[in-house]
Write the structure tokens for this entry.
Amino acid sequence: MDFSLTPEERQIRDTVRAFIEKEVMPLEPEVLRNEREGRPGLDPDVLRDLRAKARKSGFWGINTPEEYGGAALGPIMSAIIAMELGRTFVPFSFGGTADNILYAGTEEQKQRYLIPTIEGERRSCFAITEPGAGSDARNIRTKAVRDGSEWVISGEKTFITGGNEADFVMVFAVAEEHGVTCFLVDRDMGWKSEPIPTMGQWGPASLVFEDVRVPEENILGELGKGFELAMQWIGQGRYMIPARAIGSAERMLQMAIDYAKIRKSMGQTISNYQAIQWMIADSQVEIEAAKWLTLYAAWRVGEGLDARHASSIAKLNGAVMANQVVDRVLQIHGGMGYTKELPIERWYRELRLLRIFEGTDEIQRRTIARNLIKGHAKLGLIGE
Ligand SMILES: Cc1cc2nc3c(=O)[nH]c(=O)nc-3n(C[C@H](O)[C@H](O)[C@H](O)COP(=O)(O)OP(=O)(O)OC[C@H]3O[C@@H](n4cnc5c(N)ncnc54)[C@H](O)[C@@H]3O)c2cc1C
């Protein structure tokens, strides 16, 4: 068993870390100011310039296949890079990526949706959740009715990330007797969006489809096979979500350690108190556990092994870990932790989402338990 990175992998990690420290972290005060004055944290022009700069340094299309101009670094490096990106709260990610399910498109769909998304010319969103169907995604009611060579879509989607900015949506609808099907629907085909304010900085949107007519050739994948595509899309996030959270938790824990070493109470720095030391120790133990569970899930994806069980474990553990760590870090900072002068309260609000989207804690626990009870996953195995 080898836990080391190759020299090239280490170099990539170090270069990303240097880029984040030099180019992205300096934007943190500006992001906080913008958000607190009601503007997007990163101005779109600043984001575009940053991505262009990153692209020049070779950071573009991290997990995108080489035939589409990407770096194809694979799941483990993608997870490690996400950990590095998570060290800042600046809402930045490298460009040159597209939703994994767009690769299931026809050649024409790839030209119209996949490639422009990779190039950053078009923005996508993924819409399965409805007001009456969240965890119970099989219960969606948005319907698609055939009319000649077109499908007519009606229904409502909710909590759609990027739904207010997207140029097209990958929407899941029940297509008559065929069942759940994924349609690629351009905004100008007629769907409407409305932002939903949340406790986080970026709001998702609700989408309304009122008899939106979509040509047959806009079905992504096969008629009636949409649910499998939706699970494939969600599956990729189950190791990337905890990966990014690990970077955030490590950065915050370092802030807590630095603060504990200078903050005095009752004649001593608070780092001398066991109550504080235990919070620091427990946080590192949980971060390390999350790191290896996440990398294990990513490794399984990279090896082409069934990663669903490992990914559910990593996502559940990582989401809970991040929320525990940010709470302890806030506690160690006392009243200062609760102010808007520091970014901790921002992280606190943002990380709360991790326990809800792309499968809540409860749904991950349900999946893990069912896999064990039904024998799809076994205890006591190492390296298989
Ligand atoms: C900011 C944000 C962004 C999002 N982005 C997207 C997106 O881009 N696309 C998209 O399609 N969706 C998106 N979602 C939706 C998200 O995936 C759902 O909110 C999530 O799946 C939970 O569904 P729900 O909100 O309907 O809660 P519900 O399913 O109603 O759950 C309510 C509570 O009941 C629990 N529960 C439900 N069923 C069970 C069960 N069988 N056993 C035990 N407990 C159960 C849940 O865990 C939860 O605690 C987003 C949500 C948010 C908040």
The CA atoms of residues 60 and 130 lie 33 Å apart. The chain has three domains: 7-97, 123-223, 238-374. The chain has a mean pLDDT of 96. The longest helix spans residues 226-262.
